């Protein structure tokens, strides 16, 4: 098992991206350096999948041009993943039965087929 070393303050160093990484299953979706760092150091490539796959299959999500994704991890290691429209309206919610994600919460944005950290916008 790999040690998950992700810290919230580490993510603030990302203010843009040099590279875009194409999602393996949804090839029109790309993600930034900061999101790749989050996935590698937090063991959270699954979180990228949870954002990318609904872009193809969930009509309510596909309809939103700008999306705010929030993962909130509970003390029992379950979590709730929500997708909002950026105006406080929740479009989609999913319960995650178990996660070992190292942060208690994270927010990612999706726009123009790109998953990014808010600081990279």
Spatial strand sequence of the major β-sheet? 1-2-7-6-3-4-5
**Could you state the order of secondary-structure elements as H and E?**
HEEHHHEEEEE
In helices, the fraction of residues equals 25-40%
Structural class: alpha+beta
Q: Provide the number of structural domains.
A: 1
How many strands in all?
Answer: 7
Radius of gyration: 13 Å
Overall morphology = globular
Question: Please, what is the average pLDDT?
Answer: 96
Description:
By secondary structure, the protein is of the alpha+beta class. It has a single domain, classed as Nuclear Transport Factor 2, Chain: A (Roll), CATH 3.10.450. 26% of the residues lie in helices and 29% in strands. It is built from 4 helices and 7 strands, in the order αββαααβββββ. A 7-stranded mixed beta sheet has the order 1-2-7-6-3-4-5. The longest helix has 13 residues. The chain is globular. The mean pLDDT is 96.
Task: Give the SSE map.
Elements: H1 8-11, E1 21-22, E2 30-31, H2 33-42, H3 45-57, H4 59-62, E3 66-73, E4 79-84, E5 90-96, E6 105-111, E7 114-116
Helix pairs in contact: 2-3
């Amino acid at each position: 098992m790999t040690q998950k070393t992700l810290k919230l303050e580490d993510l603030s160093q990302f203010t843009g991206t040099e590279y875009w990484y194409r999602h393996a299953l949804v090839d029109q979706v790309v993600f930034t350096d900061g999101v790749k760092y989050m996935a590698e150091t937090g063991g959270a490539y699954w979180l990228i999948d949870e954002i990318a796959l609904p872009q193809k299959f969930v009509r309510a999500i596909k309809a939103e041009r700008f999306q705010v994704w929030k993962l909130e991890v509970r003390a029992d290691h379950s979590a709730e993943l929500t997708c909002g429209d950026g105006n406080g309206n929740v479009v989609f919610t999913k319960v995650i039965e178990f996660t070992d994600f190292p942060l208690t919460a994270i927010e990612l944005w999706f726009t123009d087929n790109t998953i990014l950290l808010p600081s990279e916008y």
